Structure prediction request, 361 residues.
Amino acid sequence: MAQALHADLITQGPLVAEFEDAVASYLGARHVVAFANGTAALHGAAFAAGLGPGDEAITSPLSFAASANCVLYQGASPTFVDISLSTLNIDVGAVRAAVSEATRAVIPVSFAGRPVDLAPLGPVRDRLVVVEDAAHALGARRGSGMVGGAGGADMTTFSLHPVKSITTGEGGLVSTEDDDLARRLKLFRTHGMTRDGVTRASTDGDWYHEMQALGFNYRITDFQCALGLSQLERLDEYVAARNGVAERYRDVLADEPRVSLPPQPSVGDLHAYHLFVVRVEGGPGVRLTVFDALRRAGIGVQVHYIPIYRHPYYRDVVGSPQDACPMAEQYYGGAISLPMFPAMTDADVDRVARELQRALP
Prediction:
């Protein structure tokens, strides 16, 4: 980190490409493009997918708003398809039924770090761009391959926010196997400007560059990438620790009938466990009582997430239907995210579980 701060270039320097190459090698991906944050990565993927006015993109209501906002940024329209309570991911089978002539992309979310099953999208893959929002799932595996590696989505986005598996302070990544998508991603993060592949006039010198698209300043810095490189070395360790915490929660809450535990990953998959979300029985009133009691006890619980279509902007401006996702509503009425971080001890987990059971009616 200190070396990066003393280098000649602290942004757009050599460590950006080094970090991208290291992540690509880890994922088994052809290309990785780093961005200033996870939302910028999603926006870049929406641009590279060609989304624009008149287009639609299908996504999950159970996510942070950026999963749908990136569609709006491009002038396109998000369509929400309900989740499956058995996975908490989008009901991928229902996605096929929701595809219309206007649908250009699907943005499935690997919620909480559980890899979304992309196989049911097979029949529509030839006409859609699939952008997996894997902000929660860096380090997760789908079968024998890493989420974000070859054989997955057309593009996979990740977040490097401090609460994620590894961090660059703020940062985001997009992985892809497609050379042209990678080119468009790199173009988008630098104002749409490039020196690559341009034809200079005889009177133009080395200063010459072209703005070929309307991009943004979404660059990441070298010193952030220096931090990312050091964090990447411990990613598998962090994911293993999170899985250990999850197993402890499952052990101590296994016989608690008032709580539904989060779905296990599919056989052969590896969950990244960015979140450990339980659902309490009894509806929103009971959830509020339990939530407040845990906060008073010093337990840092949260709710992930308010379904995106419930936000006033989506309700009043976008006009998103409020009654189209009953499973998301059922989930939201009882969801509480329990503390989840690699340094948690068994005693920490036991205390959280004890306070949770004490708070339950």
